[in-house]
Every structure is written in C-alpha cells, then in structure tokens.
Protein 1
Amino acid sequence: MKSLYIHVPFCKAKCGYCDFVSYPEGLDLIDKYLIALEREMQLYRGMKLSTIFIGGGTPSLLSVTQLDKLIKLIKNNFDLTSLLEFTLEANPESLTLEKIAKLNIVNRFSLGLQAFDNNILKKIGRLHTFERFQQVFAYLSDCQKDINIDLIVGFKDYPYFLRELNMFLKNEGHKITHLSLYMLDNYSTAEDQVETYLESVRIIKNYGFLHYEISNFAKKGKECKHNLVYWNRGEYLGLGPSACSFLKERRYKNANKLADYFNGKQEVEELSNEQVELEKKMLNMRLLDKGIPYQKKYDFWIQKGYLKTKVKNVVLTDLGIPFFNQIFLEL
Ligand SMILES: C[S@@+](CC[C@H](N)C(=O)[O-])C[C@H]1O[C@@H](n2cnc3c(N)ncnc32)[C@H](O)[C@@H]1O
Ligand code: SF4
C-alpha cells in the first residue's frame, strides 16, 4: 500500500513568511490543473492507498465544484478500500460549511491558524481573523472531524503569544487532535526565543498532547499517519507541481512552475548509499521517540542537555530542538 500527496499550488494571497510553492496569480488555471492531475493519476490507476494528504498552497481555495471533481478523480483512479486517513489542508478564510459538507470522505482537516491576535494575523498577511477561524473550527468539531492546527512561534512584537496559546488550549484543546508548532524559518536561538519555544512546548504538553516529532504534537493515537510514512521512509506518490514521490528507493520531483508542470517536466533522483544513510539519520532524529544509535562522541551534546539516551539510542530533548540544524551537522 502507498500514500498519496496532492499539491494544490494556489493561494489567494501570499503570506509574508511563506515559501511554499503557491501562486496567487494562477487562480484561473485551476481547471487546467485538475486536467493535468487526472493525467498524472491515470499513470497509477488502481494503486491501493493507505493515506491521502491534499496540501499546498491552499486546497480549500478550490470551489465546491472543483473540490467535488478532485474527490471524484481520486475515487475513480485509486483503490480506497483500505484507506486509513484522508487529510485536507485548509485556510480558515476559504473553508466554508458547504465545502466541508462536500468533503465527507475527508476525516482530518489541517487548519492554518498561525497566531491568535488579529493585528498579528493582518501583519503577516493572513486573510482571516481569529473569529473566522473559530467559526470554521466549531463546525468541523461538530462534524467529529480530526483537527490539526498549524501555529508559528517566533513572530516579532507578539509578547502575548504564550498567554493566548494557553487560553486557547484551555478553552478548545479538547476539540483538537493534533497540533503543528513551526518555528519561523529564521527563528533565533537567542536565549529569550529559546525560552519562548520551550514554554510553548510545556503548555502544549500540559493539555495532553504527546510531542512525537520535532514540529508535531498529537493526542494519543492521533499522530498523522501520512506524515509518519514520510518520516519512516515509506513509499508515497506525489502529484501536482513541486510534489515529490518516493517509490522503489527513487525520488521523483515534479516541476515547480505551472507551465513546466503542465508540460510534464519531472526530475528523477537516485540516492547514493551515503545520501540514504544521511537521510535516514535525519528522519530518525526528527522522531522524538526513535533517534539514532548512541555513540561516545554524543556525550558532549548529552552533557549540554540537547540530547538524551533512550534505551540504546540518543534522541533530541526539547532544549535540543531549536539547535537541531547545528547539532545535526556534527552527529
Ligand atoms: C500549506 S500551509 C497550510 C494551509 C493554508 N495554506 C494556510 O496557510 O492556512 C502549511 C503550514 O506551513 C507553515 N509555514 C509556512 N511557512 C512557514 C515558515 N516560513 N516558517 C514556519 N512555518 C511556516 C504554516 O504554519 C502553514 O500553516
Ligand atoms: S495561505 Fe498557506 S500556503 Fe498560502 S502563502 Fe499563506 S501559509 Fe503559505
């Protein structure tokens, strides 16, 4: 069985911090994009899927008719008899009750919230308010959907983040099954920033979430099955611009630009043994319960409090996470 990722490369507007492949200027090309997706799907007709993740960009931006078409394409081309999880990423701005109703097959919604404060949301280019998020969130919760919330820690001039995070989880934490906490790409490892990150982690764990991957927290049994396939180097098919596939130890990457994607441009990458080992090491370190086999040279990082031993392995500590990129180079 395989996992399927579909990249929807459209957003109504580009958020200031984001470098995902998405085009605000290509909205009139969505129907053409769906035709290209169908062509790609036909090459893998009958593939049996365990998980599906529609991400982006902003999949919720598609109209009700376009979403309906996308779901039909998936149903017509793949074997879904053993499907365990179906996630759709959504921006609260464009996810409507009508769309949620149409997306009956989707059992897990990932909502991009990022921050709780309307002034910050506006400043970073979000088109929704916190109140709009709450409306969509309440409806998804009433529909008994699994819900992930994306948050970003590290925005400037946002001293109330921790207080608001705590308040939000106190009121709504029981309705959330999963939480992704991303550090802004240029997150500083200055002492006060590290302390903010550590305090965010403490608050989230305090509301019953397990920290199972560097950026991800879940209620027991609600870990993202799809992303676990990536982190455990399972096989997946990626469709749409910029999407990667990993099939039979080969990685395929679709072109980023819409015009190139429409022309079927794709790169194939065969990994050397050395690259495979490095990739396994990196992915295993990301999984906070897994890690890599202990070696004497890791004592330096253990003493600093960035790594700890777990049975015969070493794993990252919360304190080690903001320094992961630096530590990894020396492991
Ligand atoms: C594809 S987006 C989510 C769906 C939808 N487009 C939205 O923004 O609501 C995936 C997530 O990546 C995170 N993200 C994007 N750019 C980031 C950055 N520069 N640093 C940290 N996290 C980032 C955001 O939390 C975002 O919700
Ligand atoms: S809506 Fe989501 S994918 Fe689009 S620019 Fe903003 S964060 Fe990135």
Protein 2
Amino acid sequence: MLKANLKSVTGYAGADLDKLNRALLIIESLINGDTFKKAVLNFATFQFTTYKCLGPIKMRTVQLQEFTNQQIVDILMKGHRQQGADTYMDLQLLLSTDSAGSAVGQTDDNGVTTTYKSALDNMIDGELAAHLTHEWTHTLGFTHSYSDTCDSTRNCLSVPYAIGNIIELISTGECWYGCSYPSLNNHP
Ligand SMILES: [Zn+2]
C-alpha cells in the first residue's frame, strides 16, 4: 500500500490541519484502489511535450522523457521509498498566508510544497487531495506540458494535472483547469 507520510508540516493548524488529514486519507484510499489504477492505465493520452506559444502559433520546444501508462502507475506506486510491504509519499507541506493571486501553490526543488491559505479556504477535501497529489508528482520528477492561450487545455494531459484531476474526478466528480477526459468517462 502507498501511504501518505507527513515528513514535515508547517503552518497547518486547527481546521486547516483537520482538512489536510482528511485529504491525505482520501489520497490513500483512492490511489491504492482499482478505480484510480484503471483510470491511469486507460488514460488517453499523457502528454510529454512542452510548447511555447507565440500569439496563435504553437512551437514545440522540449520532448520530455516519455512513459507508458503502466510505467506511470509503477512510478507512482513506488512513491519516495519502500519500508516493509508499504511504500511512502514523504510530504513536506507548508501553508502560506502570503497573497499569491490565483495561484494555489507550488513545489520547490527541495520537494517542499507551498499551499496558499487563500486557496485552501476555498477547497473542499477532494480538491485539496487533488492539489497535493499534483504537487507530489512534481517531487517524483513529472513536469507540466505548459498550456498557453493558444492551447489552453494541453496541460490537462501532463502527468501532474492528469493524475491530480483523476483523483479529483473520482473524489468529487469534477476537476479544475477546464479539463475533460473522455477516457475517464469511458473507463470509470
Ligand atoms: Zn504543477
């Protein structure tokens, strides 16, 4: 089983910490389940190319390392480390009261995920679970495909957004970023 371990947690207290713990339970229960695994295996199609948009012109820039759907499942389920029969996502989480416009949060090179309280306050538990899952995939090395005005939904197919959105769709039936995934409707 893949378990969510709070390696460090800063700034979460009271109701925020309760919400965080509920979100971690959602992640653990969904990510180890058949529905999540099937959704990833049947996902059409993860995008590993980055683009730069110049006005309406889309320029291919970087071809990231590609993985098959099965490889993505394997990488996710390995987590950061194995201990006994279980694997672990070692989460380093920071809740920030800084003002960050519309940003929800981000993860730095040391694997610390900052989440803005202004965003957290507007999230239901399943949305927080999706956000934390998205950020966790960054700590495993997955990056965005980068959307821009010329292709606003391309990022939906990058591993961080797709995996986060799969968690959110299973949990809440909806997902952010204007993404829709026919493969998830066909293979719930
Ligand atoms: Zn991201």
